[in-house]
């Protein structure tokens, strides 16, 4: 018997004015399967997942049926659903309800009425299995984003669910933490036989290992097949979703190859080795020079120190940086390194106790608030919901600007014309991110600060976002973005800095920065470094592949 049977499911949110978020969806999930659900932001992925647990189902008009173990889901008691269907949300803080790590591990078991001795045994087992024992007694508020998400997963698994549903679980994790987290999910599926249904924009670490990939578009399922066939189908259809495929898939078809593509970095490396058994004649693309510094720089940080508590540890420890005007400057690094705090210091949200922050050659404290936040500096925070206070997206934009033409242009640029009348909290994570970006851009800043701007957005809109940022920098606007999305930084940033232990350690062009790293780099670089030098994007590898083929044919 299948775990889930979704039959002709259609749904529209109460505030959507008849627009369907799901349209005649049919899907069967067998016991023990590992299914990855892909699609653009707003394609209906999160809405579909939330219909698999009644307490999370959104309000609106629904038709069709969802069966669990052959029974209508709405007929299954909430307690039984809690025990059998685990759900890990996109934002770790949305799910944590207690103050201590061990309290969080025990909370679900207490709710289910598990006997104390059995509860202690399960909590201890989960702490050991997930490597939590070293921070077992810590306050939850002091955990990094990666630790919080791991705690959420452990808390759900302590209840021994039959099904594990995860909605963009790595959107706030750095690449190494994300890879570790997804490997743990795969281990749960393999070793425990737990059915896994996962939505994720980062497909590198899950796509090759899924039993099936299901692609959604406009609330419908447009493809449902083994991962090896999905890339070829999307390439043949010229689907926008092809840009979300893992780097080995994009390189293979981008190089005009036929047949089954490699899915993993290892498979891609083997394919390149066979393609160039004697090595490549052209090993590297022309170098990209560093951006000229200009005078004054858009931002200057000199020996910036900051701590949140007087007796607490320093979060920023002598940060030094100069950001040229009119460039895209990426900051990468692990969770808890201090990246977001650095953005807050630049924006004046927190005040360093030592050091200088200068914007366009002028100390930040000498900028008047009116000039600083209107036509000067703007920040898109990591949680876009913190910017929303109105009932519709249109009203949110009207808060920033009364010019209808400017609002229409911002809405078109950020691809939110179709959701202007929607409530911001009814939107998907990616739609919220785009709406928040439109709101921020209406302040017409000269310096734009972005904290995880690609979080929750699909590959198609990442390219749209890159176009927006390039237009801004062409107009002299400077963009500083903190991001875990190394692929986006490698492809679109002009400069990239590594943030570690409260400091900026190194800054270089993306090609030299990612090309010189072993682990903190892109899948394209790991796949190709034995053949090509400093190829850090799928486009770099495709260009070098074609150049070598053309050279060989002369």
Give a verbal description of the structure:
The protein has 554 residues and is α/β, with parallel strands linked by helices. Helix content is 35%, strand content 21%. The strands form 4 sheets. It has a 6-stranded mixed beta sheet. It has helices at residues 45-50, 78-84, 101-111, 116-129, 145-157, 175-192, 227-236, 247-254, 265-275, 339-347, 369-373, 393-400, 404-413, 429-441, 459-474, 486-492, 510-515, 523-528, 538-553, and strands at residues 4-13, 22-29, 34-39, 60-68, 71-72, 85-88, 163-167, 195-199, 212-217, 220-225, 299-306, 316-323, 328-332, 354-359, 362-363, 377-380, 447-451, 478-482, 495-500, 503-508. Strand 4 (60-68) and strand 5 form a beta hairpin. The mean pLDDT is 89.
Describe the protein's topology.
Blueprint: E1 4-13, E2 22-29, E3 34-39, H1 45-50, E4 60-68, E5 71-72, H2 78-84, E6 85-88, H3 101-111, H4 116-129, H5 145-157, E7 163-167, H6 175-192, E8 195-199, E9 212-217, E10 220-225, H7 227-236, H8 247-254, H9 265-275, E11 299-306, E12 316-323, E13 328-332, H10 339-347, E14 354-359, E15 362-363, H11 369-373, E16 377-380, H12 393-400, H13 404-413, H14 429-441, E17 447-451, H15 459-474, E18 478-482, H16 486-492, E19 495-500, E20 503-508, H17 510-515, H18 523-528, H19 538-553
Parallel strand pairs: 3-8, 3-9, 6-7, 7-8, 13-18, 13-19, 16-17, 17-18
Antiparallel strand pairs: 1-2, 1-4, 4-5, 9-10, 11-12, 11-14, 14-15, 19-20
Helix pairs in contact: 3-4, 3-5, 8-19, 12-14, 13-14
